[in-house]
């Protein structure tokens, strides 16, 4: 797993790269990670990601999953996860893995603003492992995942949170 440091480029091989706003979530044997790209994050946003109370909700779509999250006073955000996008040789984290690393990157500069590792509660981590295990074991269809995500993302994130199979 690549190491990230505050004040350093997110991608050292392309240090001047700009990133579109959005969040990417990975759940694998190399770690559980949430990477957020925000254009010019304000000091209050950085502080919330750095030390604000973290909340998570996991939505189980039929062929995808959505991790909803918020830090401190920030509104709920979300990141999709689709089994069909997994590389060959993909493996889930060990049962019981519960540490998630959060990385916040200034999308305008490519500079890392926050690196934070926190632990999910055991029941949330177990629920996540069950959901992702089911998705990995099933047929991985881009068409089905796209249809499910379109259905889920037709709702505001705060509504998605109400459909969560697990909350932390």
Number of domains as seen in the coordinates = 1
Output the structural class: alpha+beta
- Low-confidence parts lasting 5 or more residues at pLDDT below 50? none
SSE string, helices as H and strands as E: EEHEEEEEHHHE
Terminus-to-terminus distance:
25 Å
Helical segment tally?
4
Mean pLDDT value: 93
Topology summary:
Elements: E1 22-28, E2 31-38, H1 43-51, E3 54-60, E4 65-71, E5 77-81, E6 99-106, E7 111-119, H2 122-137, H3 142-152, H4 157-162, E8 166-167
Parallel strand pairs: 2-6
Antiparallel strand pairs: 1-2, 3-4, 3-8, 4-5, 6-7
Describe the structure.
The chain is an alpha+beta fold and 168 residues long. The chain has helices at residues 43-51, 122-137, 142-152, 157-162; strands at residues 22-28, 31-38, 54-60, 65-71, 77-81, 99-106, 111-119, 166-167. The chain has a four-stranded mixed sheet with strand order 1-2-6-7, covered by helices on one side. A four-stranded antiparallel sheet has the order 5-4-3-8. A hairpin with a 4-residue loop joins β6 and β7. The chain is globular and about 40 Å long. 30% of the residues are buried.
């Amino acid at each position: 797993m690549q190491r990230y440091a505050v004040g350093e480029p997110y991608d050292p091989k392309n240090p001047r790269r700009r990133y579109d706003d959005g969040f990417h979530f990975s759940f694998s044997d190399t770690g559980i990670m949430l990477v957020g790209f925000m254009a010019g994050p304000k000091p209050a946003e950085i502080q919330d990601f750095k030390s604000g109370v973290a909340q998570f909700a996991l939505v189980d779509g039929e062929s995808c999953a959505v991790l909803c999250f918020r830090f401190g006073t920030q509104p709920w955000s979300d990141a999709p996860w689709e089994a069909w996008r997994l590389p060959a040789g993909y493996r889930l984290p060990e049962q019981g893995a519960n540490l998630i690393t959060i990385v916040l990157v200034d999308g305008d500069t490519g500079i890392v603003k926050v690196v934070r590792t926190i632990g999910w509660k055991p029941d949330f981590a177990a629920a996540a492992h069950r959901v992702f295990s089911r998705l990995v074991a099933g047929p991985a269809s881009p068409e089905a995942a796209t249809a499910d995500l379109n259905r889920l993302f037709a709702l505001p994130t705060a509504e998605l949170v109400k459909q969560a199979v697990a909350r932390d």
